[in-house]
Structure to design on (443 residues):
C-alpha cells in the first residue's frame, strides 16, 4: 500500500483481541496490481457490511509459494525460472486458479489474481476459493521440449501444495490443454495412479470437459447479451471491438459474430486489424492457426495499433488480452458505450473512475470471464464422479450459472445504486463472509 498505515487492533467476535496481519511496512506481494485488487476490495468492503474479522482475513492471501525451477534448455545449458503459486482463500473449498507463463509473472500479480479468483468463484457460487500461479518466462522463446520440462519440474515442486481437495490448477495466459495434460501426468506419476481431477482444462481424452475450451469466451458473450437485454439493446445490432485474440478474445469474437454482431476490430500482441463493416472471424482464426498470430494479415483490413483499437468508435469493447489496458491515459478517449472485461484486471482504478464519470458501464472481470472457472468446476465434478455430460448440457448449465450471477449483480447495483464492479464484489464478499462467519477463525 502507498504510504504507511497504523497497525489496527480488532476485536474478534469470540472476544479475543488480535492484531491485523497488515504491517506498517509493505508485504512481499504488495505490488501495483495487488494494490489495485486491494483498493477494489476496500471500496467494496465499505458497501458490503461484513464483520471486521472477515475483512481482516480477506485482505491477505492465505499461502504463497515461491520456487526457482532449474531447467535444461535445448542447447544443453541450464536456466532458472522463478515460479509462484498463491492461495487467497480456502474458506469455501479447495482453491482454484490458472497457471500462466509470462515474463511479467511475479508474487504480487499472482496474489492479485488469486484474490480475484476468490471473488469470482464465490460470485458464481462455486465451492472454491481463489489461487493463481505461474512461471516467469517468455513462452514464445521456449521450445515445446523446454516447456514440457518447465511444466513437469513446476508440477513436481508444487505437488505438496496442490491436490483435488486442496488446490486445482487450470490454464491461463500461454498455457493450454497440453500444459494441463503434462501437469496431470506428472502428478499422477508421483501418486502411482491417474488423477484427472488434479487439473481442469485438460484434453477431453484425459477427462477434460467438453466446452471448457470455449467456456470463458462464450461466458463473456452470455454476460454481454444479458447486459444488452437489460439496457434495451439488440446484440445483433452492436458494433464490437475485441482486444486479445487468444482463448478468451478469439472465442468471444466468434460468439459475437455468430449472434449477428459486427466485430469490426480484433488484436493480439502483433497489433490489430480493423474493417468498418465487420471482420470475417473464421478466416482470421484460420490465419492465426497457420501463422501463430495476426502478424502479416492484410487482406481487406486496415492494420492498427492496440492503442488505436481501444479508442475505436464502437458499441461494445471487449478487453480480453491482459491487465492494465484501460488506464488514466486512455480511459478519457474510449469511444464505446459498454466495456466487457474478458481479461482479469484490464481496467485500473483510475481508468474505472474515468469510465464511471463518463457514464460508460463496465461488465466486471469477476463476473464476465467466470465462464472458464464455472466449466472447470463442471469438469472437476465430472472427474470426481467419473460420469460425463454432453456439450449441450454443459452449455445450458453454464448459461444458467452466468445468468443467475449476472442478475444478482445487476440487482445489487440497482438496489444500492453502485457500479457493477462494486456490486459484483459486494455480492461475492458476502458469500465468503457468510461461510467465514459460520466457520469462525481456528482455533
Ligand atoms: P491467451 O494467451 O490465449 O491469449 C491472450 C491474447 O492476448 C493473445 O492473442 C495475445 O497475443 C494477446 N495479447 C497479449 N498481450 C497483449 C497486448 N498488450 N495487447 C493486445 N493483445 C495482447 O490468453 P487467454 O487465456 O485468452 O487469457 C486472456 C486474459 O483472460 C488473461 O487476463 C487471463 O487471465 C484471462 N482469463 C482467461 C481465462 C481462460 O479460461 N483462458 C479465464 C478467465 C480469465
Amino acid at each position: 500500500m502507498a504510504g504507511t498505515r497504523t497497525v489496527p487492533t480488532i476485536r474478534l467476535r469470540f472476544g479475543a483481541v488480535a492484531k491485523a496481519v497488515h504491517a506498517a511496512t509493505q508485504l512481499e506481494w504488495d505490488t501495483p496490481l495487488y494494490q489495485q485488487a486491494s483498493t477494489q476490495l476496500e471500496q467494496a468492503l465499505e458497501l458490503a457490511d461484513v464483520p471486521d474479522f472477515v475483512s481482516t482475513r480477506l485482505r491477505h492471501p492465505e499461502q504463497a509459494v515461491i520456487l526457482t525451477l532449474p531447467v535444461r534448455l535445448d542447447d544443453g545449458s541450464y536456466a532458472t525460472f522463478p515460479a509462484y503459486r498463491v492461495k487467497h482463500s480456502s474458506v469455501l473449498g479447495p482453491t482454484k486458479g490458472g497457471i500462466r507463463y509470462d515474463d511479467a509473472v511475479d508474487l504480487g500479480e499472482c496474489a492479485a489474481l488469486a484474490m480475484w479468483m476468490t471473488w469470482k468463484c464465490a460470485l458464481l457460487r462455486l465451492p472454491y476459493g481463489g489461487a493463481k500461479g505461474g512461471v516467469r518466462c517468455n513462452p514464445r522463446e521456449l521450445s515445446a521440449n523446454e516447456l514440457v520440462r518447465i511444466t513437469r519440474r513446476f508440477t513436481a515442486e508444487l505437488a505438496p501444495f496442490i491436490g483435488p481437495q486442496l488446490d486445482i490448477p487450470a490454464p491461463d495466459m500461454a498455457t493450454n490443454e497440453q500444459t494441463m495434460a503434462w501437469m496431470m501426468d506428472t502428478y499422477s506419476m508421483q501418486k502411482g495412479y491417474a488423477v484427472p481431477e488434479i487439473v481442469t482444462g485438460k484434453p477431453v481424452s484425459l477427462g477434460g470437459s467438453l466446452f471448457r475450451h470455449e467456456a470463458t469466451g462464450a461466458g463473456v458473450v452470455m454476460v454481454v447479451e444479458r447486459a444488452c437485454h437489460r439496457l434495451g439493446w439488440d446484440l445483433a445490432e452492436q458494433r464490437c471491438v475485441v482486444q486479445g485474440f487468444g482463448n478468451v478474445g478469439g472465442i468471444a469474437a466468434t460468439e459475437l459474430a455468430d449472434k449477428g454482431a459486427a466485430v469490426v476490430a480484433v488484436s493480439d500482441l502483433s497489433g490489430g486489424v480493423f474493417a468498418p463493416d465487420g471482420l470475417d472471424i473464421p478466416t482470421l482464426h484460420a490465419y492465426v492457426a497457420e501463422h501463430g498470430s495476426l502478424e502479416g494479415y492484410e487482406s481487406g483490413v486496415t492494420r492498427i495499433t492496440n492503442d488505436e483499437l481501444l479508442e475505436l468508435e464502437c458499441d461494445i469493447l471487449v478487453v480480453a488480452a491482459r491487465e492494465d489496458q484501460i488506464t488514466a491515459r486512455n480511459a478519457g478517449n474510449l469511444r464505446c458505450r459498454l466495456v466487457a472485461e474478458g481479461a482479469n484486471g484490464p481496467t485500473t482504478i483510475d481508468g474505472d473512475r474515468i469510465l464511471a464519470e463518463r457514464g460508460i458501464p463496465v461488465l466486471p472481470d469477476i463476473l464476465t470471464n467466470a465462464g472458464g472457472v464455472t466449466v472447470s468446476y463442471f469438469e472437476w465434478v465430472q472427474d470426481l464422479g467419473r460420469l460425463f455430460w454432453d456439450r449441450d448440457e454443459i452449455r445450458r448449465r453454464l448459461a444458467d450459472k452466468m445468468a443467475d450471477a449476472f442478475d444478482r449483480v445487476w440487482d445489487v447495483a440497482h438496489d444500492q445504486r453502485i457500479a457493477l464492479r462494486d456490486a459484483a464484489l459486494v455480492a461475492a464478499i458476502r458469500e465468503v463472509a457468510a461461510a467465514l462467519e459460520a466457520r469462525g477463525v481456528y482455533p
DSSP finds 14 helices and 14 strands in the chain. Residues 1-23 have pLDDT under 50 and may be disordered. Residues 171-174, 216, 243-249, 267-269, 306, 320-322, 342-344, 369, 372 surround nicotinamide-adenine-dinucleotide (CB under 6 Å). Residues 151 and 179 are 7 Å apart (CA to CA).
